[in-house]
Design a protein that fits this description.
The complex is a heterodimer. Chain A is mostly helical. Chain A contains 17 helices and two strands. Chain A folds into two domains: 52 residues; 230 residues, MetI-like (MetI-like fold), CATH 1.10.3720.10. The two termini of chain A are 16 Å apart. Chain B is built from 17 helices and eleven strands. The longest helix of chain B has 25 residues. Classes of the chains: A mainly alpha, B alpha/beta. Chain A: Belongs to the binding-protein-dependent transport system permease family.
């Protein structure tokens, strides 16, 4: 895309990135990076070190208590066999990676992985596409656009349990409004939540609706950062609206888009409530994702199975981490070019 | 890298703030841990719907007054309660008394965190053996049922009359299916039940499973397949709505209250609601496959006493347990909970004297069976998960009842080992 119109796109991209990235990097650059200051600091290192440690201690304690320890505990749970008895007595048998082997070789794993991938990627792709379309639409301020934009935020304001319950009523096979509308068009009953072929689709639809406001808000903010004169210049060059979108808006939104997609990915990977309320991962396992599986092991049956739950949870963390690194890698590469 | 410095600073500020708040709350909460003072006894139950001003809370408090102590009551959601209890036991500060959903008793007993009733010197012989059984592990009773409920078939009298069905004629599966056929032919809906993929799904399926003569150790027996084929057959014939696959017991009840269903499988806890329905209702026992009454699973809570480091506390705990389980106490509990059937013969007699209309339910409870009985204990939750998954797969059509149950049996065996 860029190669076809090097003038506009190439020039603006640098500007755009400056607009988005500069503010956070500005102050820190002055503080840490200046070489003369560094030298000066090193010379009087001894005295303020304790003071510095004192200032950083609350943060370290916070990170240790609320992040490092729970993470360690989760790994610990997954490497042992924590039956309820072992959990109380504190004498679980060490299993090594046996829990991981069990999970990965289990019949349910392939399906859960496929469901997780479908649920996550279809959800964020659709959320992003619709969110971007709406953001561009609202960017042209028109009468009532503020009000309408506000209404699009409603899914975000509702507690998830409310949204998910409402969706499950709407998609009810016998009495749901969705089926009654379809029937008036002559389409027969679709068992949205109770057919193994539809259950995953149904929860994806509900999740897309829930995720649109998040994408809309962030992308809309990103659009505000694109200087108006670029559009003027493009218009003078004779670019159509469509060309303006693909050659100006879309490339300049790339950093914002990347962050939106990454955040979307992470919070879609871990969705439990919507699926649990609508289908409990069923029928059978047909809408079970890794997150649902983990939740079911720990809280969904009469007997808590902490070890398999932690194992599946850790796999999810690893998956999210991998995508985080992919994001960082792509961003670095982009900055270098 | 420099990009991160601003967020990091923000996080550190927020972190400091959170730590301060956490520190404050830690200080203020340190003196009301579960191991309270010598004249305060802690009590956990799974009834968050009953707040401090409720009859139930006052009943609990009265038992404390009688024993000369204050009871501090905390209510949790049923599933959260099991996890909270395990956590507390791990930390060594279990409450003095926990009211536990009956299948959880064997799990916690197996974890070694409950005392036996004989250690307390409490005589459990006056309680109905079938109800007590759910709390018995290896011959020892780890709790006392404070009441019980179970499942039956509610019917809509208007619909049955219109279709010319006499509820008394329903004595086995065949006559029930014939009744459904008549009702549906008359333009109404047949039956609704809960086949959701949780414990509720297994709970609702068990009367048919046991009613066919199947055994939980043998999920793929021909009897079990027959029970699942009965449900599947109703779905295929349109006697039961497709929504049952996802129905919880509450949703089922809401469907029944619309007045469009002839039958609903539901529990003792709906007796009041059924009486207030906009149409006349009635109750029949769930029939067995070839006649007779099917065994139904018991629901309801057990009063249990977790192990304490300070054994001196047991004396008062025993008094509180006794207060809750006298015949009058059981009837009071039954009335407080809008029909919880007492767990002793004497209590049942007294309840029937006050409410003769509950006859069917008392009979159903006498005939019921604990899910963890037959020495299943902690194996039950694993078997149950396999069972409800099979029910879901068969009803949704992704597997035949026979294949689904065969898979369930091999999964359950693999889980139990």
């Amino acid at each position: 895309m860029r190669s076809t119109s090097p003038k506009t796109a190439g020039g603006t991209e640098a500007d755009g990135r400056e607009a988005v990235v500069t503010p956070p990097s500005g102050p820190s650059g002055g503080r840490v990076d200046g070489p003369p200051e560094n030298v000066a600091r090193r010379s009087r290192l001894r005295e303020p070190r304790w003071a510095a440690l004192g200032f950083i201690a609350p943060l370290l304690a916070y990170l240790a208590i609320f992040y490092a320890y729970p993470l360690y505990r989760n790994v610990d749970l997954s490497l042992h066999d924590y039956t309820p008895r072992a959990f109380v007595m504190g004498n679980p048998e060490f299993l090594g990676l046996a829990n991981y082997v069990d999970v990965v070789t289990s019949d349910a794993f392939g399906l859960a992985l496929r469901n997780t991938a479908l649920f996550t990627f279809v959800s964020i792709a659709a959320q992003y596409a619709v969110g971007l379309a709406l953001a561009v639409f609202f960017h042209n301020n028109f009468r009532l656009s503020g009000l309408l934009r506000g209404m699009f935020l409603i899914p975000w304001l509702l507690p998830w349990i409310v949204s998910a319950s409402t969706w499950s009523w709407m998609m009810n096979s016998e009495n749901g409004i969705v089926n009654s509308v379809l029937e008036s068009f002559g389409i027969g009953q679709i068992n949205w939540l109770t057919s193994p072929d539809w259950a995953l689709t149904s929860v994806i639809i509900a999740n897309i609706w829930l995720g649109i406001p998040f994408n809309l808000v962030i992308l809309y903010a990103g659009l505000q950062n694109i200087p108006k004169d670029l559009y003027e210049a493009a218009a003078l060059d004779g670019a159509s609206v469509w060309q303006q979108f693909w050659r100006v808006t879309f490339p300049l939104l790339r950093p914002v888009s990347a962050v939106t997609l990454l955040l979307g990915l992470i919070y879609t990977l871990k969705v439990v409530d919507v699926i649990w309320i609508m289908t409990t991962g069923g029928p059978g396992n047909s809408s079970t994702t890794l997150a649902i599986w983990s939740y079911r092991e720990a809280f969904g049956t009469g007997q808590p199975e902490f070890s398999p739950a932690a194992t599946v949870g850790n796999l999810l963390i690893v998956i999210a981490l991998v995508f985080g690194f992919v994001h960082l890698y792509l961003q670095r590469r982009q900055e270098r070019t | 890298m420099k990009r991160f410095s601003t967020p990091v600073r923000a996080v550190s500020a927020a972190g400091t703030a959170v730590l301060c708040i956490a520190g404050l709350s830690a200080c203020s909460s340190s003196d009301d841990s579960a191991q309270a003072g010598s004249d305060t006894y802690t009590w956990w139950d799974p009834y968050p719907q009953h707040d401090e001003s409720s009859d139930w809370a006052q009943r609990v408090a009265a038992c404390g007054d009688e024993a000369g102590v204050t009871i501090e009551r905390t209510a949790y959601d049923t599933t959260a309660l099991t996890n909270q209890a395990l956590l507390a036991a791990q930390e060594g500060n279990s409450p003095d008394i926990i009211l536990l959903d009956n299948p959880a008793v064997s799990t916690l007993a197996d974890a070694g965190m409950l005392t036996t009733m004989s250690e307390f010197g409490l005589d459990t012989s006056r309680f109905d053996e079938n109800l007590l059984a759910a709390g018995v592990v290896g011959g020892d009773a780890y709790g006392i049922p404070i009441g019980a409920n179970t499942l039956s078939l509610y019917y809509n009298k208007t619909i049955l009359d219109a279709a010319g069905v006499d509820p008394a004629s329903i004595t086995d599966w065949q006559s029930l299916t014939a009744a459904l056929e008549k009702v549906v032919a008359n333009g109404d809906k047949g039956i609704t039940f809960a086949g959701i993929g949780t414990e509720e799904g297994s709970f609702q399926f068990l009367p048919w499973f046991w009613g066919a003569g199947a055994d939980l150790r043998d999920l793929d027996s021909p009897e079990a397949v027959a029970a699942l084929e009965l449900w599947k057959g109703w779905l295929d014939a349109g006697y039961a709505p497709n929504t049952v696959i996802n129905n919880s017991q509450n949703t089922t009840w809401e469907e029944f209250l619309t007045g469009r269903f002839a039958f609903a499988e539901n529990g003792t806890w709906q007796v009041n609601s059924a009486a207030e329905a906009e149409f006349p209702t009635g109750v029949i026992q769930i029939p067995g496959r070839d006649g007779g009454v099917a065994q139904t699973p018991t629901g309801g809570e057990f009063i249990t006493a977790p192990v304490q480091e300070d054994e001196a506390r047991y004396d008062v705990t025993k008094q509180i347990v006794e207060c809750m389980t006298t015949p009058e106490g059981l009837v009071k509990t039954a009335n407080t909970f809008a029909y919880y059937i007492p767990s002793t013969q004497a209590g049942q007699k007294e309840l029937l004297a006050q409410h003769p209309e509950l006859e069917t339910w008392v009979e159903a409870v006498r005939n019921a069976k604990g899910r963890t009985s037959d020495d299943l204990g902690t194996d039950y939750p694993k078997i149950s998960e396999a069972l409800w998954t099979a029910v879901q797969k068969a009803l949704s059509g992704s597997m035949s009842p026979k294949d689904a149950l065969a898979e369930a049996q091999s999964n359950a065996e693999a889980e139990i080992e």
